[in-house]
Amino acid sequence: MEIHKKDRKVRRAVFTKNANELEVLLSAADKSARSIKLTWEVVQQKYSDLQIVDEKVYELLLETDADEKELAEEMEIRDTYLKKYTNLRLKVEESSLDNDIHSEHSANSRATVPGSKARQLVESYPAMQENYSKIIDSLKARFGRDDILIEVYVRELLKLILSNAMAQDKMDISTLHDKIESHLRALETLGITKNNCASMLFPLIESCLPENLLRAWQRSAQYSFEEPRENELEEESQDILVHTVDKPVYVCRARINSVWVSGQLRPKKSACVVSLYKKVSEYNQFEVLVSIEKSSRLSWVYKNKYTLISEGAVTSGENILKTYIARRSANSHNKDGSLTYNVGKFTPSENLGVFHLVDQNNNELQFEDGEILVETEPIAYELKSIKLERFRGRFPRTQKKLGEAVLKNEEDVLQHVASVISYKYNYSLFWGKGHGLLTGLPFTVTLPNGTHVKGQWAVPKEELKSEVAPVEKYLEAGTAVNVTLMGNYTESEIPYNATVVAIYKDGEKKEIEIRDTKREKIVSDVIALYDPVYFLHNNSHVPTTTTTTAATTSGTTSTTFKTSTPQEIASEIPTSHKTVDKNNKLSNHEDNHNILSDDQNVDRQNSSEKKPDVPAKPDGACSIGMFSSVTILAVSLVLLRVT
């Protein structure tokens, strides 16, 4: 306990120091909004830290059986710091409000033309908070005729559309879009919203667009876009609904003087009901809280002034005074329109936390306890049930040289020469991001073949891969061949459907259906290209192998040559290794005929199986054949001479 008390003493001193600095800034004649905001942020943080230590000390006092007097003194001291903090908060709010009033008054002055009647009217009022609303009312009464303003903006819009439709040089799309949007926003401030006049504005704007743009728009998937139906919005907001007796109520927020305030969107209403400074208002411009793709795990957690704010509590927005989305059970009378829960905000900086809620009669209610909306974030994802749509994929390929090698046979006999070519490339794999999923969480992909790949969600997996490819060749003695390794660098994009399983710390799992694109960069179709075989001693190509056959006709003798390329010679596989006899060219010539490829050996074996057994020729068969040819040739010459 002594350690906590010492820690609290230091924190109280730091809080008091920063609080005094803030009071000096607030009381200064020339106030600096930036300095006030910065110091106020520090004071908030210091007070929040002090509250945590105060809670620890109070719990330790209860455990040590402290008497009531000591506990009461502890609470009185805490109330002193609370009052000081609350007083500062009210001063900051008043200072911010004054700055807004003065800035808005000066903005009104700048928005009017110097010397005009409107400027004279604005300058006739002193720059005071009470006069701001009077200035606005006077300007509206004299110059704010909505019917005339609507007519002016509609005429300007029609003039813009017609002039662009009839002009030969069309206005560029971005400029046309900006001008139309400015007129539509002006009409919207006067109550003419896009939803009310879309059926009229759409064909007018469409008529001034270029023909090629219209064709592209009509072919797009968004051409038949429809607004989400009520049941679709209910599905996306299912976890955060606050029901009436028979219909759902949605959580919404509206921006008031740069401050986001959470409220409720009731059935058959087009306005967000919020409360600020004990005043309940309805705002037509608002945002609805939805769970994107139903990917969030949301729950309502009980909170009072003695419990800490749960981790993952959903805030109303990035405000100086942070508030949270809250609700509390209502005393429903089972009447039409009665709320089962009152929705609003929870302000932790006010009196250890106060719930500001709105009932069905638009009355603000304040409570010390209620429920806060909390989002529980997963700790990991699992991607499974992947269905790739390859027929819709893209596979752009770029041919790339991966490496080179030289195969040499420096021996005196035929050799089977083998080697490997190593190459590197940048590999990348990206499964997309999805909607409503957290970036950087660890995830596991279960591929269709059953293998598992790990990574970080929505972060591309990139690495420098090293691969090797074997190359081999049968080479004659003293020959070599150059080998080039080629491949296709493919950047594929394949759409897919899958199921993402969100895994939470408590063991619960939530399945989310997603549709995204798998992007992968990889080298494929690797092939080795062999150049012509050459001799090592002079780098000349190995000559082609020829076989000569003689054919005799009635008066002529013809010779036919059968040639083969050097690649075919080098790729032939011998049936048996024979020693090269440099003195016997015939034996060397016969060896060349015995060098066959694997496919040739298979074809030769199959053909030999089909043919009947033929007795082997004797060793002198070659000489007999040559003698017969010479004899036939001599007889032919004799016959020619006789005839």
Structure, described:
- The protein is an alpha+beta fold.
- The protein folds into five domains: 2-111, Methane Monooxygenase Hydroxylase, Chain G, domain 1 (Up-down Bundle), CATH 1.20.58; 145-224; 230-376, no CATH class; 380-535, Proaerolysin, chain A, domain 3 (Proaerolysin, Chain A, domain 3, Beta Complex); 547-642, no CATH class.
- It is built from 14 helices and 25 strands.
- Strands 13, 14, 15, 16, 17, 18, 19, 20 and 21 form a nine-stranded mixed β-sheet that branches. Strands 7-12-8-9-10-11 form a six-stranded antiparallel β-sheet, with no helix packed on it. Strands 1, 2, 3 and 6 form a four-stranded antiparallel β-sheet that branches.
Concise structural overview:
The chain is an alpha+beta fold and 643 residues long.
Properties at a glance:
extended, Methane Monooxygenase Hydroxylase, Chain G, domain 1, 9-stranded mixed beta sheet, 6-stranded antiparallel beta sheet, 14 helices, 30% strand, alpha+beta, 643 residues, 5 domains
CATH topology of the largest domain: Proaerolysin, Chain A, domain 3
Number of domains: 5
CATH architecture call of the largest domain: Beta Complex
Helix-and-strand structural type: alpha+beta
CATH class of the largest domain: Mainly Beta
Number of strands: 25
The low-confidence runs, each spanning 5 or more residues with pLDDT under 50, are: 221-230, 232-236, 546-625
Distance between the termini: 139 Å
Biggest sheet layout = 9 strands, mixed
Please give the radius of gyration in angstroms. 44 Å
Mean pLDDT: 75
